Amino acid sequence: MDNDFRGVTYGAIGYASTGDYITSAQIFSNVLGEGVSFHVQLPYTNSFGWFLGNNIYSNTNANSVPLFTDPASSVMHIFNLTL
Which helix (H) or strand (E) is 13 found in, with range? Predict the structure, then answer.
């Protein structure tokens, strides 16, 4: 929580490792940059248990943009509360 990854040079969150996997994660209230890649990049089969909430997603110019995932069909749970 409360991490600022808008200055990343490649991508904010990603997981690709042979033989290992993370089945679930919760990422809340962060600033995630995409660098030259994606905000979140996971194997499709490992994206079911991932939850992203109340994050801000930025592009290389530090502008707020919609979440950019790879694959685009990821089934992670995404929500943003507005008060």
Answer: strand 13-14
